[in-house]
Amino acid sequence: MGSGLVRTTKTGQASYPLHGSVLNSKSVPETFAKYGSYFRSQVFPEGWPQHPSYAQGHGAIAGACATILKAAFDGSVPFDSINNGATRIASEDGRSLVSCTCSDSNEISVQIEINKLASNLGLGRNFAGVHWRTDYSEGLKLGEAVAIRILSDQSDLYAEEFSGLTLTKFDGTTLTVNY
Fold first, then answer.
1. Which one from 26, 34, 51, 95 is the annotated catalytic residue?
2. What digits encode the pLDDT tens for the residues 62-76?
3. Which helix (H) or strand (E) holds 113?
4. Catalytic residue among 7, 58, 70, 131
5. Is 51 one of the annotated active-site residues of the chain?
6. What is the pLDDT of residues 26-39, one digit of tens each?
7. Considering only CA atoms, which of 60, 63, 64, 67 is closest in space to residue 177?
8. Which of 47, 74, 121, 156 could pair covalently with 62 via S-S, beta carbons 3.0-4.6 A apart?
9. Nearest 5°: phi and psi at 162?
10. Where are the domains of the chain?
11. The pTM is what?
12. DSSP letter assigned to residue 43
């Protein structure tokens, strides 16, 4: 979608209300100079899949798996406390790992790490040029909704009493799944 809007605007075929930072990005003339087109390049030489991309399958699976993990673990637990204080983060240049000096214990939590894992799975397909951003973001929501429904439906299978569980969704809202 994005490169198509840029192309049609730059070639004068249409005019879209694109933010100046998009149209004036240095990547626009660089892409045109290298490929002769304003369309973004593809990582895969064979191009993109010949099937609908919305919602992204990778994002949906990541969203479902992450939601089940968030239901199983207390997401508020600081990641450092389960890692014996040995949490490492990327250095400023991204070339090495350094000890975490996080001042806020919630800065790196189980919840945040699960969300990052799900996000990375979906974003990789976007970076490859195979999917659009919304394919990924809506895929996460779809997977989350399916997992929540499965968790709710499974309540009839448990013999023990259980009042439900609370988890934080990708949009930041808290949800209690009652059994």
1. 51
2. 999 999 999 888 877
3. helix 110-127
4. 58
5. yes
6. 888 888 898 888 87
7. 67
8. 121
9. -150, 125
10. 1-41, 53-177
11. 0.66
12. S
